[in-house]
From TrEMBL:
It comes from Rhizobium tubonense. Heterodimer composed of CysD, the smaller subunit, and CysN. Sulfate-activating enzymes, NodP and NodQ, may be physically associated. It is an enzyme of class 2 (transferase). Keywords: ATP-binding, GTP-binding, Nucleotide-binding, Nucleotidyltransferase, Transferase. The lineage of its organism: Bacteria, Pseudomonadati, Pseudomonadota, Alphaproteobacteria, Hyphomicrobiales. The gene is cysN. Pathway: Sulfur metabolism; hydrogen sulfide biosynthesis; sulfite from sulfate: step 1/3. This is Sulfate adenylyltransferase subunit 1.
């Protein structure tokens, strides 16, 4: 077949979705590495690339040359130098959130997200983790579990990662101390179980010496009989297909001529084929798919990750930010949602402040009401009105117009969002939706606090009302029961 460069060309037949799905399921395992500064992250990634022969000959020569004189007391090359290209770019002030490294073994291929380790780490980590199947958490065997370890594990689990490898690194510096390794393993497993993470492999390793990374560390640690890092990675599973049906967040309406109107975007969940019935949200209008076009082909199916133009069988009103979804598997549409947030900027998240929320190609105003903050040491969710930088919190989102989400654990794409401060344009938080709240519930109490779940203009009026002012004394408000809160709401509502 000649190059199919017109939208009328027919793709080689994809008679079913199976080939597309099969290709997706055999995709490389995506990894993220997290750790505190100096735990050995760069050394570990460099060592993985080196020992799996992912380093090209010219890079290898350069590594040997650049390591001369900088060698550590073991006389080994500095594997972290393999990642230095990225470092140089960072030093020039070029913003790179995440760089992806590729390596493979006989059994499988891998993509590792290499995220900068310093300031703004949380944001970069969240970016890398949002597509990862597995998290490698690095800790220094001499230091044990730190608050940073708990923070990263919590964020990774909120981002839906269910498989963890705890890489207890620099074990050579503890004289391969078995008891120390076992204590850290035990403590971490206990913590990870509290997060609901059940697949945890803990491995003692020396990234620098290459023990238990690709090659066995048996000679130095005869007491360890578990897998090497690469063996553990070969056994991990790729994340299964998303639980929800077809989702397309419309990025652009394409109208090249009178007779053609298509809706462009990347499929964010499920699959679609001509003839399928779809619904446009938030309007609720219904249509059938008549054609799926990609940049050079007409396709007879598309799956999550494909960038497509969708043509419908009738004239419907669709604009940028709308979502086109499977009619038999719809997302949640509502004015109020529960979510987890990670606060990313020094200013944190203020109580009741209005932000821009961006999810897919949709951008809308939202009022954010923090409810509680995770105490990393104990795992408790303590009541909170605001969230400081790096805090992980639970919040209520209250919209002026209908919002559309899937719970994050069912679809990472249509369940996640960022918050933008309208005054500074800074991205101040990343969030994961847990679900829709029962429709506008007015005022109620939660964790001993009174929560307003109202459209912002109504909430402002209530806050300003005499009735609320009379109740503003903190202790008094905290003592209110849900019934009293409801009474207050009823009175306030009739007052305005
Ligand atoms: N003895 C020993 N030293 C190690 C090991 N892994 C890393 N190191 C050393 O620890 C130091 C920090 O390693 P890096 O790989 O730069 O650490 P990092 O976590 O990437 O640090 P940042 O890039 O600053 O975030 C370097 O001097 C490494 O040579 C190990 O397994 N054993």
């Amino acid at each position: 077949m000649t190059a199919a460069n017109s939208a009328n060309a027919i793709a080689e037949p994809l008679s079913a979705l199976e080939p597309l799905k099969a290709a997706r399921d055999s995709r490389p395992l995506r990894l993220i590495t997290c750790g505190s500064v100096d735990d050995g992250k760069s050394t570990l990634i460099g060592r993985l690339l080196w020992d799996t022969k992912a380093v090209k000959e010219d890079q290898a020569v350069a590594l040997r040359r650049d390591s001369t004189g900088k060698q550590n007391d073991l006389g080994l090359p500095d594997f972290a130098l393999l990642l230095d290209g990225l470092q140089a770019e960072r030093e020039q002030g070029i913003t790179i959130d995440v760089a992806y490294r590729y390596f493979s073994t006989d059994k499988r291929s891998f993509i590792v997200a290499d995220t900068p380790g310093h300031e703004q780490y949380t944001r970069n980590m969240a970016t890398g983790a949002s597509t990862a199947d597995l998290a490698i958490l690095l800790i220094d065997a001499r230091m044990g579990i730190l608050e940073q370890t708990r923070r990263h594990a919590t964020i990774a689990s909120l981002l839906g990662i269910k498989q963890f490898v705890l890489a207890i690194n620099k074990i050579d510096l503890t004289n391969y101390d078995r008891a120390g390794f076992e204590k850290i393993s035990h403590d971490f497993k206990e913590f990870a179980l509290s997060l609901g993470v059940k697949q945890i492999t803990t491995i003692p390793m020396s990234a620098l010496k290459g023990e238990n990374v690709v090659y066995s560390g048996q000679a130095a640690m005869p007491w360890y009989t578990g897998p090497t890092l690469v063996e553990a990675l070969e056994l991990a599973t790729v994340r299964s297909a998303q639980a929800v049906g077809f989702r397309l967040s419309v990025q652009r309406v394409s109208r090249p001529g009178e007779s053609f109107r298509g809706y462009q975007g990347t499929v964010a969940g499920g699959s679609v084929k001509p003839g399928d019935s779809v619904m446009i949200l938030p309007s609720g209008m219904v249509a059938n798919v008549s054609k799926i076009v990609t940049f050079d082909l007409i396709r007879n199916a598309a799956v999550a990750g494909d960038a497509i133009t969708l043509v419908l069988d009738r004239q419907v009103d669709v604009s940028r930010g709308d979502m086109i979804v499977a009619i038999d598997s719809q997302p949640q549409v509502g004015l109020s949602f529960d979510a987890h947030l990670v606060a990313l900027q020094p200013e944190g998240i203020e109580a009741g402040k209005r932000y821009w929320l961006k999810s897919g190609s949709r951008r809308q105003r939202v009022q954010v009401n923090p409810v509680s903050q995770l105490e990393l040491k104990t795992g408790d969710w303590n009541p909170a009105r605001a969230l400081p930088m790096n805090a992980i919190g639970k919040v209520h989102l209250v919209f002026d117009e209908a919002a559309i989400f899937d719970p994050y654990d069912q679809n990472r794409s249509s369940g996640s969002f960022i918050l933008i401060d309208p005054d500074t344009n800074n991205t101040v938080a990343g969030g994961m939706v847990t679900g829709k709240r029962s429709e506008i519930s007015g005022i109620h109490t939660e964790d001993g606090r009174v929560i307003l779940s109202l459209p912002a203009d109504l909430a402002d009026k209530i806050m300003a009302s005499e009735l609320f002012a009379a109740r503003r004394d903190e202790a008094d408000v905290r003592r209110m029961t849900a019934a009293q809160a409801a009474e207050l709401w009823k009175n306030a509502a009739s007052d305005i």
